[in-house]
Design brief:
The structure is a homodimer. Chain A contains 18 helices and 18 strands. By secondary structure, chain A is α/β, with parallel strands linked by helices. Among the domains of chain A are: 29 residues, no CATH class; 142 residues, Chitobiase, domain 2. In chain A, the strands form three sheets. In chain A, strands 1, 2, 3, 4, 5, 6, 7 and 8 form an eight-stranded mixed beta sheet that branches. In chain A, strands 9-10-11-14-15-16-17-18 form an eight-stranded parallel beta barrel, surrounded by five helices.
Chain lengths: 538, 538
């Protein structure tokens, strides 16, 4: 204990937070660079306590519904120990018996240790750090995970390598329930290890949904039990560029341990070229004039066999992926092949669609949504489906991906006015790189700044960072994703009023990026400067 | 031997090269994707020979001036063996005695094994691959290194992992003598390992100059023997963020073994903020009105102590770095601090410079060039020095970094008309990233397409890819640099007529990128697709 003056910051005394931060950075230790994303309420002090890896204990509170044997928390304690004490070699030989013990006591209200996180899971937690003890309380184990991450970011080392944590009180919860990252494993195959490491880094920024855009035109790497030809003929390589059932289980299990949902996307009727290689008669044959051109278009929406196939495939998918939601795509359907095909035109006529192919797409999507509804899954679809077809089941989530702020704000208004739940991705297409500090734009997004009532605003369930794969694979994914995605993570977790200044966020963001590097994540630099521990290795 | 029909391609039958390439890619093995950068003359055949790692021998030709014990070639043989046979585990247990031996016989005209590559070193080589033997002949060991790289790119594996090489005849030499890459270790510190790996990857693209922009405003990581305060006070960290004498020797020695020159840059009088921390009275004190502002500007050009310091520092630098050239910078000098300083203004008056500060910069640079000339070093300076001061020593090399094609072409004309040697960097500032296939622009540069005589064109000694460090460190350097820099490498090595189509280069470039990935270089993808062996590891 080295001092006892308090400064309260957070919700009420916001300016002091940054003031304190700068003083600490300029005057050397004690260093409290803060937490990313910023907690909702944060009270800290310059009073600091030494921590020793030899005398640090994770503990379950006596009142905790979860106790030793809880897979989620036992696993988290194992993972966070080396993150708290990165220099500790763990041989125990140098144990100093004089070290005073420090207990991190975790108490949760519910024993949801063996469940999966879901869309209504509470991630709320309270963390109180005082001498010799920190108390972490949460309703769920998922909230406890978020609190462990926060605690890990509070621990720091001085120039001699000693560990400290300052007196702190935090009450925290996410602003939005859905905070996702999309990875695209069709345009390039991502090794499972790369996905697992991305899940780790997601947890460091408190992301909670991995949107797995698993298949698309270029390749079909998902190895289906029911339709093995889809990957054996549609993957880049049938053995080395696929996700086996075991790979998928590994990803879902790893994600669960970090409190991350895995949302699979099987996008149709467009974006399905690779599906056609392993499933004949699935895609629409295109015509050139009156004869077949030899090429294929979107899924053929006029054949009963299409819906039989989809029902079987989605039955499998609904069993493999435990999440209550499933992403059905529905974007960017090119109508030229459909309109070239005389059978499709005849079907249009019979159905009374005239020449409006948006009606045909709506018909197709309605069938697919019905299939997945019957499997007890809630559908998420790209905005195109709403644009073409306003009468879709009310529980469907609409995913906005198009356009500039003016156009996505108008779309937010329209969709929420129609009573639909909405997910915002448009401003966070971070596969689009440019020179300089583009994270500032991602940070400055105001997801609820659109014309609408309070009720409408409540329908925005969250946001998603998309890393489409045209130019991304395991060689460059990590530095493109981090820390740029983390700018959106703070926007989706933290209070907007407390995080309105991108300039004030900058030093805390730089510090967070160095923490990622220290954890072995190749997070790229934000600007000129250095980290105490630079990335090592080739 | 599986076939014996010949197709000659290269200088005379260029279109066939691409025809052949595509046939091979579509019809499966034998696969000959070609070499990057494209050799000047290349005759190949579909006749292929199996290679076995257990029966492959590097040998010195009996007429070779270099023999066993030659550090450059002995080292290259060691390095290339695992690059030729990436799956070979090397335990020798599975040796198949039936494997027929294959000898790669290297003959060089000169024993320059213990020297450094220099600006006039020949890199010419001839490579002839036939049954059981390949002959590699070169004037120098540096040429032999280039030939070894080419040979390594000719070896491929079939789907069963067996190794093959096709009958091939190559006569090759570089179009430009200077093919450089600039790394900036001041805006971010790059660990020595990162620099060494970059040297490896440079050799794979036949780059031959590492331009080490070692110090600048943000930090001074070079640990000087004579002025240790420069790094102890001017580096980001005096112990962890510096290059010791031993580090520098390691970089130079590693570069030499790849036939790469190390060109150090100590940029002045601007870009020197970090120098001022460890050397008082070196920088110009700025004034606000009639009093000192407390800030400092460029190096103070009016004090004799400045030139004494520079003479001592450059004497050390000239001993540490063996290359005949030294880069003196001279770019982007801000005149506002000089003009604020009454002593500088008085000096200007005394010297008859009036208020033309370009004359003061020219005066300063003239003094620095004289210092390094006396140390037997040829100076390279950024174009600003020429723009301000046309009378500079004729052997100085001018380095063009500014502007769009129209402006750098005009500068090329002006400089070569004045009889000066020129190095072109402007079109290859690849730290400027953008979305999509920007390598196409780098590939399409025509360095000699400017108004001027044949004599003028000969004064363009080469080009340089610059990776400035504002947004780059060890986390993201490799995927930003590779394979984008390799587009410039082909432009600087190969015949422009044979490499005029970026579309035709595309599949060969994709294949080369996969070769880099196979060698453990995190080279990013060019577009949608896959490599047989994806990047593994975190």
């Amino acid at each position: 204990m080295e001092a006892a003056s308090f400064v309260t910051f957070g919700q009420y005394l916001r300016p002091n937070f940054y003031f304190l931060l700068l003083i600490f950075l300029q005057n050397g230790p004690p260093i409290v660079e803060g937490v990313w994303p910023l907690p909702q309420t944060f009270t800290s002090s310059i009073e600091r306590y030494p921590l020793s890896p030899e005398a640090f204990y994770f503990e379950y509170g006596s009142q905790s519904a979860a106790q030793q044997g809880c897979s989620v928390l036992d696993g988290a304690f194992m993972r966070y120990f080396p993150l708290l004490f990165p220099d500790y070699t763990g041989n125990g030989v140098l144990r100093l018996y004089g070290d005073k013990p420090f207990h991190l006591v975790v108490t949760v209200d519910r024993d949801d240790c063996e469940s999966y996180p879901h869309e209504d899971s509470s991630e709320r937690y309270n963390l109180s750090v005082s001498a010799r003890q920190a108390s972490l309380n949460a309703e769920t184990v998922w909230g406890a995970l978020r609190g462990l991450e926060t605690f890990s970011q509070l621990v720091y080392q001085d120039d001699f390598g000693s560990y400290f944590v300052n007196k702190t009180d935090i009450a925290d919860f996410p602003r939005f329930q859905f905070r996702g990252i999309l990875l695209d494993t069709s345009r390039h195959y991502l090794p499972v290890q790369t996905i697992l490491q991305t899940l780790d880094a997601m947890a460091y920024s408190k992301f909670n949904v991995f949107h797995w855009h698993i298949v698309d035109d270029p390749s079909f790497p998902y190895q289906s039990r029911t339709y093995p030809d889809l990957s054996s003929k549609g993957a880049f390589h049938p053995m080395t560029h696929i996700y086996t059932q075991s790979d998928v289980r590994r990803v879902i299990s790893h994600a669960r341990l970090w409190g991350i949902r895995v949302l699979p996307e099987f996008d149709s009727p467009g974006h399905t070229k690779s599906w056609g290689k392993g499933q004949s008669d699935l895609l629409t044959p295109c015509y050139k004039g009156s004869s077949l051109s030899g090429t294929f278009g979107p899924v053929n929406p006029i054949l009963p066999s299409t819906y039989q196939f989809m029902a079987t495939l989605f039955k499998e998918v609904s069993l493999v992926f435990p999440d209550s939601h499933i992403h059905l795509g529905g974007d960017e359907v090119n109508f030229s092949c459909w309109s070239s095909n005389p059978d499709v035109r005849a079907f249009m006529k019979k159905m009374g669609f005239g020449v409006d192919f948006t009606k045909l797409e709506a018909f197709y999507m309605e069938n697919i949504v019905n299939i997945t509804s019957a499997l007890n899954k809630t559908a998420i679809v790209w905005q195109d489906v709403f644009d073409y077809h306003e009468r879709i089941p009310k529980d469907t989530v609409l995913h906005i991906w198009k356009g500039n702020p003016a156009s996505y704000k108008a779309e937010l208004s329209r969709m929420t006015k129609a009573g639909m739940k909405v997910l915002l991705a448009a401003p966070w297409y971070i596969n689009h790189i440019s020179y300089g500090q583009d994270w500032r734009e991602y940070y400055n997004v105001q997801p609820l700044d659109f014309p609408g009532t309070e009720e409408q605003k409540k329908l925005v369930i969250g946001g998603e960072v998309c890393m489409w794969g045209e130019y991304v694979d395991a060689t460059n994914l990590t530095p493109r994703l981090w820390p740029r995605a983390s700018a959106a993570a703070e926007r989706l977790w933290s209070d907007e009023k407390q995080t309105s200044s991108v300039d004030k966020a900058f030093p805390r963001f730089q510090d967070f990026r160095c923490k990622l590097v220290r954890r072995g994540i190749r997070a790229e630099p934000l600007y000129v400067g250095h980290c105490k521990h630079e990335y090592q290795g080739r």
